[in-house]
Design a protein that fits this description.
single chain; alpha/beta; Cobalt-precorrin-4 Transmethylase, domain 1; 5-stranded antiparallel β-sheet; about 30% helix; elongated
């Protein structure tokens, strides 16, 4: 005898129950009324209300003055409420959601920035944002939160208040709280998660781990019901049904431990009908059937319905369709368009005769004896579930950029197209996204839209994580004197910034060259690969000073090696003074030719013999390496020149007074 395990938390939560009761109460009054949006994500309840004269409408503009408008448990924005002026409004907003609305209004009115942890496309979050009277930011991931905190830290940590969508994941919310407490001192955190959702999912998981077959009851367009289905599917075979008519008798008879749960939008009467029907099936088993007979029943034509998942054996592969045996009287056909997500693919490359494949029923035509099936949709479901799991676990995925569209790019992963907004396509601003086309990228899923079965990804989140890891590794091993290879990222008037692998360091302009330069771009350009060494570290401010000049390139070292005293060498006149001329010996080393050392005869003006730019031969007659000063003489190189006359004491004093303190001059 099979055992039924029923979740205690199955069915309506408090907020949904309250909204539905009010809606049916109004229906009994025969008022001209509508619900703003589906009252809950359950088609049976929505249709019951419609039959009672209360249909759903999508927008406030679709209502008319005098009409009664029912606000569902998700709530709406202040603007929507204002647009409903002239209507009788029955506000069924969940009290827990209304509490967040009050917090949003009060905290932003007090001048605080509001942070909302949740899905920006969810109606509850949209309503919360619509109640804020000041700045508000919605985030879903740790990376998004850290980016916001870093931005605000630079602005002096303005006061922030933080709330969460009532159905947000408790575990992730706890991580957010840890980040806020650790990295931001001016945050006010409100605990706004409804415990009912978390409790329902945990209970479903516990039952699924014990069961070998699960039945999840609820609307197929209900995100919380689908979440229950996904959770249970990880542990055992699971079937999602909307009513008792979709129960698979053979599946119930085939399993011993059967679990049952239901979404927050599933009415109690539907749950009761399903449980009663299951009990009847188990109580009236009658003659025991063999496993083969039960399996055949589970695949019989009378149990086939649109949306049912079946297994089939490929019997024929044709150019435009494949035929499959699904153990039913009807012929199973999979059109070419339903074989693969990839358009134009050769069917024979996807399946072979004899393959067993998973399929989903698209249409049952008993008159023609045909069941139309889809392999593509089963694959898409599995692929989407993988994306959802990656979202829950914050797994890094790999995909290829296939399209550049308005506002971002599309990344192909698991045969699904993931949208990545332009702002999240890189950790740096990108003007031309086309450079990413056909490139393999890593990304994280940061948003899931169950209703539209779409996902949003972030390449930036992965790059920031990688950068953070590199930074931590860098700071763990960095030390003064250590050599690194890096890339020049930007130039300023005072130096060049170099990326050392997630951490930037600066080469001051004086460290770029041994010679005096006016701009860093005289030595390096953005994108250059350079070898640098650590000159200084400021761990608290996370600042690094880099050295670029090498000691072997020091012009004074070259001069010391190649230009001893008495060396005669060509020099270039670089400036004229009243007492002599300065001449460049090699770049970075200048010497002084005193007026007395320019010619054999005495001269009145240096400019009578020399001009800037002249190249002349000169002899090195003295060097002071400590003071970096060199004395030169042209007179000592002249043919037939008279011996250098000893200078009088007065001339030496005058010479010393002229050149005292001038770099490049030595006086003995």
């Amino acid at each position: 005898m099979s055992e039924l395990m029923v979740a205690k938390s199955a069915g309506f939560c408090f907020g949904v129950s309250r909204a539905v009761e009010k809606a049916f109460s109004l229906a009994g009054q025969q008022k001209d009324a509508v619900t703003l949006g589906a009252i809950i994500h359950n088609p049976q309840v929505v249709e019951r209300l419609r039959a009672l004269g209360i249909p759903p409408v999508e927008r406030a503009e679709d209502t008319h003055p005098g009409q009664t408008v029912i606000i569902r448990s998700h709530g709406v924005s202040r603007a929507t409420m204002e647009a409903l002026a002239g209507r009788e409004v029955v506000d069924c907003t969940c009290p827990y959601v209304a509490k967040i609305h009050r917090i949003a209004q009060e905290e932003t009115a007090a001048g605080r920035i509001l942070l909302v942890a949740g899905d920006p496309a969810h109606p509850e979050v949209e309503g919360t944002v619509g109640h804020a009277v000041g700045p508000v930011q919605v985030f879903q991931t740790e990376e998004e939160l850290m980016a916001l905190l870093e931005e605000w830290k630079e602005k002096g940590e303005p006061p922030i208040s933080v709330v969460a969508q009532t159905t947000f994941r408790q575990a992730l919310w706890e991580k957010f709280q840890e980040i806020l407490e650790k990295h931001y001192t001016n945050a006010k955190i409100f605990d706004t998660i409804c415990s009912a959702t978390d409790k329902r999912q945990r209970e479903a998981m516990e039952i699924a781990q014990k069961a070998d077959y699960m039945v999840v009851i609820g609307g197929r367009n209900s995100s919380n019901t689908r979440k229950l289905f996904e959770i249970c599917s990880r542990f055992c075979e699971t079937n999602l049904i909307e009513s008792k008519s979709e129960l698979d008798k053979s599946k119930i008879l085939l399993h011993n431990n059967i679990g049952v749960t239901a979404g927050a939008s599933t009415p109690a009467d539907i749950i009761k009908e399903v449980l009663n029907t299951m009990s009847e099936i188990l109580e009236n088993q009658g003659e025991e059937l063999s496993f083969a007979e039960l399996f055949e029943q589970s695949q019989s034509a009378e149990k086939l319905y649109t949306g049912k998942r079946v297994k089939g054996i490929v019997t024929t592969v044709a150019p435009n369709e494949i035929h499959v045996d699904i153990g039913a009287k009807q012929a199973g056909i999979v059109p070419a368009s339903e074989v693969s997500e990839t358009s134009g693919v050769n069917i024979a490359d996807v399946v072979k005769k004899g393959d067993e494949i998973d399929l989903i029923v698209l249409k049952v035509n008993d008159q023609e004896g045909i069941v139309t099936l889809s392999k593509k949709r089963v694959d898409a479901e599995a692929n989407y579930n993988e994306i959802c799991k990656a979202y829950e676990d914050q797994t890094v995925l790999t995909g290829v950029v296939t399209d550049v569209i308005k506002g971002g790019i599309l990344v192909s992963c698991n045969n699904l197209k993931i949208f990545v907004p332009a702002s999240l396509a890189s950790d740096r601003r990108m003007e031309d996204l086309s450079v990413l086309l056909q490139k393999e990228v890593e990304f994280k899923v940061i948003e899931i839209n169950d209703r539209r079965r779409r996902a949003v990804g972030s390449i930036k989140a992965v790059l920031q994580e990688q950068k953070k890891a590199k930074q931590e590794a860098f700071w763990a091993e960095v030390e003064v004197g250590k050599v690194y290879h890096g890339e020049v990222k930007s130039l300023t008037s005072y130096g060049a910034f170099v990326d050392l692998g997630g951490v930037d360091g600066m080469i001051h302009i004086t460290e770029l060259s041994w010679t005096r330069i006016k701009s860093p771009d005289e030595v390096v350009k953005v994108g250059d690969q350079v070898e640098v060494y650590i000159k200084d570290i400021d761990p608290e401010k996370k600042k690094i000073s880099l050295g670029y000049k090498k000691s072997e390139d020091n012009p004074w070292e070259i001069f010391k090696r190649d230009y001893p005293i008495d060396t005669v060498t060509p020099v270039k006149i670089v400036s004229i003074t009243t007492f002599g001329a300065f001449a460049q010996i090699i770049p970075g080393v200048d010497g002084l030719i005193h007026i007395s050392q320019i010619a054999n005869e005495r001269i009145a003006k240096v400019s009578d013999k020399l001009a800037v730019g002249d190249v002349v031969d000169a002899k090195i007659i003295d060097i002071d390496f400590d003071k970096k000063k060199v004395s030169l003489s042209i007179r000592a190189t002249l043919d037939g020149s008279a011996p250098v006359e000893e200078e009088t004491e007065d001339e030496v004093s005058e010479y010393a007074a002229d050149v005292a303190g001038i770099e490049g001059v030595t006086i003995e």
